[in-house]
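Table 4 source record.
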Amino acid sequence: MSEEILINVTPSETRVAVVENGVLQEVYVERASRRGLVGNIYKGRVCRVLPGMQAAFVDIGLDRAAFLHVSDIQCESEEAVRVEGCRPPESITDLLREGQDVIVQVIKDPLGTKGARLTTHVSIPSRYLVLMSNLRHVGISQRIEDEAERLRLKELVQERAPEGCEFGFIVRTAAEGVGEQELTEDMTFLTKLWTLVRERVAQAESGAIIHEDLPLAVRTLRDLVGDEVERVRIDSGETHVRVQTFARQFMPQLMERIEYYTGERPIFDLYGVEDEIQKALERKVQLKSGGYLIIDQTEAMTTVDVNTGAFVGHRNLEETIFKTNLEAAQAIARQLRLRNLGGIIIIDFIDMTDAEHKRQVLRALEKALEKDHAKSHISEVSNLGLVEMTRKRTRESLEHVLCSACPTCNGRGFMKTAETVCYEIFREIMRQARAFDVSTFLVLASTEVVHRLVDEESTSVADLESFIGKPIKLQAEPQYNTEQFDVVLM
């Protein structure tokens, strides 16, 4: 598998594209005016404790207070500390009080109307390790499956960890096969950084940021570049130098793979990335076979509907459905990564009667999601033929980053018809006629609605004038959308 990472940098925005075998798989966007907060550490102040929700709102200097649930609060009891964290007391009031200062880290960016999600389990990642402030042991990534390698890494980190340190380490997947020197350097770096964080905590005021995560370009090198990545292309000289400096210090083996792109074509045009981003904002996703997906993103969940479309197959209906669903499973996995869709996801595959076909489609979906950096969980096919799954969400979806709700339909995705608006106008005139004694009614509405009132609804307008005993005048307002109208009393 050939994988390449393209980094496009402008003064106001950085974009990263992950391309596998010439096909765009993931897009990351970070804007200078609205950088992501995940990984940032703050000295917050508790502004509200909510026992009914077992949570608290914490002021960390943002527009909206951030949310801290009791399950994300670190226990002080040494005996309670476990690999999964500790089990908190029953009430959050035993842990926090209003006005208390607390060191917190953002684990989810603000999404929609919700504030950032926080934890007191502070962690700081490097290339091969993650420093965990609340653990006193060494953990190994579950993606490292070789038991001998897991044991080697664990013993190596335990031997090289600073004596008497009050923190632990998680060994990341990227550390598989890495030597002693690289891991030791990572531990030294993280230990010094944690010491600096502790010093800043002592000096900082409430609401201050203590530690900010790396910018997107450098973060990409740290988190996304593995052995499968052939090269990283960057179209900014300044960013290229910064990324190389980081690689020289922490990841020297990647130096040869980092390139400064100076081509005349925009870097995102190399693999049609711009076109793919545009397609990722549409509801309909066309499949090569002629079938298609319909993806709808709502506040509560994302739904994916699979349709055969123009694909008629060559054998029988069941085989046609099976092939469409198999292709759809691959496409869905890619779209989830590309659009960064998280939370609850409901997939409505075309109904299959063969149990083996259902199993193969589910397995194809699971296999396609193995490359995904975000954790996901897939359930079996329900009695209604739906596949329920979840995907971890830490940042806004691509649609929410690049788009805003339509000002005309307010994000509904549909508008009332001109006929419906005409009947609303009739009801409003009746309402006003009963309440006020006026000589004339003037209706201001969109051109489309006024045309309908003059043509198809002219008889209804005449009947209404006769019923209320008052004339009705019409005036088209080109600036009005279909749903807008005013009834003016004259």
